[in-house]
């Protein structure tokens, strides 16, 4: 019986969630392994544990969010 395909979930403004275990090949050729049943792969490259997500993306301000549309007090 064939193994079912791995599921990858792309979170908006967040990590890629991949059913594990996984092997990740980094851009320098190193291979890192995640043995959990679900791993979060960083897509913003802000993680101190890259390629694993450490939620550093939450600190990034969205360019298209409400704060980006509001003019400073003196310019209204």
Automatic annotation (TrEMBL):
Residues 19-63 form the Iron-binding zinc finger CDGSH type domain. Keywords: 2Fe-2S, Iron, Iron-sulfur, Metal-binding. GO terms for cellular component: cytoplasm. Residues 57-76 are annotated as: Disordered. Signal peptide: none annotated. Gene3D superfamilies: CDGSH iron-sulfur domain, mitoNEET-type (3.40.5.90). GO terms for molecular function: 2 iron, 2 sulfur cluster binding; metal ion binding. Residues 64-76 have a biased composition (Low complexity). This is CDGSH iron-sulfur domain-containing protein. It comes from Streptomyces triticirhizae.
